[in-house]
Write a structure and sequence with these properties.
This protein is α/β, with parallel strands linked by helices. The protein has two domains: 4-178 and 351-379, Quinone Oxidoreductase, Chain A, domain 1; 180-323, 3-Layer(aba) Sandwich (Rossmann fold), CATH 3.40.50. Helix content is 26%, strand content 23%. The protein is built from twelve helices and 16 strands. It has helices at residues 59-67, 88-94, 116-119, 174-177, 180-193, 209-221, 235-243, 256-263, 280-286, 311-317, 329-340, 359-367, and strands spanning 12-14, 21-27, 33-39, 46-56, 78-87, 101-104, 156-160, 165-167, 201-205, 225-230, 247-250, 269-274, 290-298, 320-323, 352-354, 377-379. The strands form three sheets. Strands 1, 4, 5, 6, 7, 8, 15 and 16 form an eight-stranded mixed beta sheet that branches. A six-stranded parallel beta sheet has the order 11-10-9-12-13-14, with helices on both faces. A two-stranded antiparallel sheet has the order 2-3. Helix 1 (59-67) packs across helix 12, helix 5 crosses helix 6 and helix 5 (180-193) packs across helix 11 (329-340). It starts with 11 loop residues before the first strand and ends in an 11-residue tail after the last strand.
Amino acid sequence: MTNSADIDIAPTRSLARPPRLVRAAVSMPDTTTTVRHLDTDAAVGAVGWLKVESSAVCGTDVSLYRGGLDSPTVLGHHVVGTVVSLDETQATSWDVRPGDRVALEEYLPCRSADCPACRTRDYRMCPQTDLWQGKRRVGLVSAEDGSGLHGGNAEYMQLTANSLVYRLPANLDADLAAWTQPFANALDWTVDAGGAEEGSTVVVIGPGYHGIAAVAAARAAGAARIVVIGVPDSAGRLEIAESLGAAPVVNNNASLPDLIWRATDGEGADVLLDTVGLGGEAVAAAARVLRKRGRLVIGGLGSTPVCELDLKSLVRGANTIVGVRGRSPEAVRRSIDILADGRSGLEIVPAIDVDLDQVDDMLGRMAAGQGPVSPHVVIRPQLRRPIDQK
């Protein structure tokens, strides 16, 4: 174990150092979570500390939890908080000072000159931080590594030299701030990869966290028509999508192309975004409803991703099929700007606030498919509810 003098690698500016012992929700390989006190003095490589304001629960968190984590882990990678201490080098590099409110990306890239991804600042493609390879990312590093405070489901989280940090407006509403990363994903997928623009017809498969964010992204881009398709038990989330300006469509095992044709008055889609992982045959069928130069954007991992495509149809329509993951730094900055100036509309989506003592119950419910109607579930580590409050 290192002592507190070993934590900072350069002189530190600080408003307040974190307490030595802080509360964290540690999720276990057996799909349980327990609140523990972790030792900030055990930190290795910390260049500063973040007091966590919010840690929004993503579908990736739930999938990892349900599938069984490799080791005890403080989950949470959609993190917003206030910097409480930071060394001079990083303060200059990030243009951030103690007291600033920031959002983090989950990537912890290697930043090696030999890494093609890091050389071009395409950090999401760095092998070190890849979800299926290196797994060095916020909310996935083991709680047995140093302080263990590597995820947002804790009162404080350590910052390292390869953290990706974005300053937020001090007055940005807390519920909107928690949308920073999922909304950035949606902008990247819907606008950058999908090409949504003013006048577009955008069809979103799945009214979950990223599906709702995609509606907001399409709305911000000026799409003329937005359609969201969900299964019968997603009716509540379809209502949320409708309140954001989308036309809700319930799929009762009907033909997906037929549903899209009817919902778009026979015109098809400029952008078709799959956020759930349709599977092979459904993807192939969906591609047939694209308009000329339309794009099928695949953001969900289906159980049967291999399929036979009608290549002639793709060529005749000059269509594009693209897979997406994460987001670019530019998308994060646009997300912050749109959230701050009130153009996202996401303030109408109810936030489900969860304290650390409720994380075990909430993750268990979500892993079992019994989560709340609103997809905006936000862990707030500083929230302490009375014991008798449910």
